[in-house]
Amino acid sequence: MKVKFSDRYIKALQPKEKEYCIREGHGFTLRVYPSGVKSFEYIYTINGKRRRMALGVYPHVSLADARQKHRDAVDLLASGVDPQNPPELPQPPAVLTVNQLAEKYFVHIETHLVDRSAKQQKRTIEADVLPVWGDRPAAEIRRRDAVALIEQVARRAPGQARNVLLNARTMFSFALHREIVEYNPFSRVGAAVPAAAAGSRDRVLSDDEIKTVWRALTKPGSEIVRRAILLILVTGQRPGEVAGMHSSEFNEDMRWWTIPPERSKNKRENRVYLTDLARKFIPPLGGYCFPAQKRAEGHLSEGSLSHHITYYLEPPYLGLPRWTPHDLRRTAATKLAELGCSDAIIDEIQNHKKQGVIKTYNRYKYDKEKKLWLEKWSKYLAELTVKSRVLLRTERVKKRKLEKLRVRATIKLRRGEVPPRRSQ
């Protein structure tokens, strides 16, 4: 039978008198032995022969790592290579052109980034980098070449120039780490071409700004988009991951939202605790929680959230300094730190990639800590925004009372009535 594997499902499987297999699909299989050992396998056919490839024993090999091994094996098989007998990788040529570098880089990002990010980077590099430099040796590109390229694009479209600068710099960093080039020609190019310099990446909204945003986005109008934007602030997750939220990603009581690896920026599964406040912004719908507004199928795009903030809020950005959906994620991280949450827990809540030996040895999921701190963050937001609404309501009541008194006094004066003096 075929099922969707999860840690909860695998842990619940019990051994039987004979070993048995459960398949998820595309050959990804879990074999349970009478001893209780649970082993991941890839079952495939090559040259007319059926083969089994061991991917690791659970939980020594996590579900996420087994999925990655399976994806790598599927890719090899698709290229005609037996994943259990891969050929030795050829040595890179002494001189690599920018076209050849781009081909290697595209393969890398397709494996390590979500589809939308990989496609965007590929589209940008193919449009503005390869037509100019494609046949040139990558190691011969100098900073003056990079400055000239970015200036040329900036004259046409400053926004696109920023994209080219960011993506080309990342591609050459990839080349630098693999000793294809000796330095990154795009390093510090932003200082030489201010029009293409990346925008501020340290924007954090103050409490007063949070209240302004909250009041505006909880008013009627484009409710689906506004709920998604506020959910970024409440959960601290990436805008694209919130926009693509699906009802199948919730557990039974809708307390945990599991973002699968294929939707995560770093290809790492992330469990997000949904507080009562967060659940208020999730529409009671089946399928995508935030469906596309102008398409029959699919979900909101990350660009739709940014577009709403830029063009649909009045005044633009609600009169605040420019802010983006990602700034709300950064605000959540900063405020959690102010509340006393450690950097390690914030990284787990926001699914930042682990570094060094921690990545290899620390497999703890931090569910208890995630729940604790997201509850504290929701309580902080609730007190901040509810208190603000109460004060506004009180001021409105006072203004209405004063207005009524003024009208009554005016009517009495017109009738010739003199209001009684207060006793001394």
Q: How many strand segments?
A: 6
Overall average pLDDT = 85
- Seen as an oligomer or otherwise, the chain set is single chain
What is the number of helices?
Answer: 17
- At CATH level 2, the architecture of the largest domain is Orthogonal Bundle
Q: Give the ordered list of helices and strands.
A: HEEEEHHHHHHHHHHEEHHHHHH
- Tally of distinct domains: 3
Distance between the termini: 92 Å
Keywords:
424 residues, alpha+beta, Double Stranded RNA Binding Domain, DNA polymerase, domain 1, hpI Integrase, Chain A, 3 domains, four-stranded antiparallel sheet, two-stranded antiparallel sheet, 17 helices, 6 strands
Please give a quick description of this structure.
The protein is α+β, with helices and mostly antiparallel strands and 424 residues long. It contains 17 helices and six strands.
Overview of the structural elements:
The chain is an alpha+beta fold. It folds into 3 domains: 7-78, 2-Layer Sandwich (Double Stranded RNA Binding Domain), CATH 3.30.160; 98-196, DNA polymerase, domain 1 (Orthogonal Bundle), CATH 1.10.150.130; 207-383, hpI Integrase, Chain A, CATH 1.10.443.10. The protein is 50% helix and 9% strand. The strands form 2 sheets. Strands 1-2-3-4 form a 4-stranded antiparallel sheet. Strands 5-6 form a two-stranded antiparallel sheet. Strand 3 (38-46) and strand 4 form a beta hairpin. Helix 9 (207-217) packs across helix 17 (367-414) and helix 15 crosses helix 17. The protein is flat. The model has no long low-confidence stretch (mean pLDDT 85).
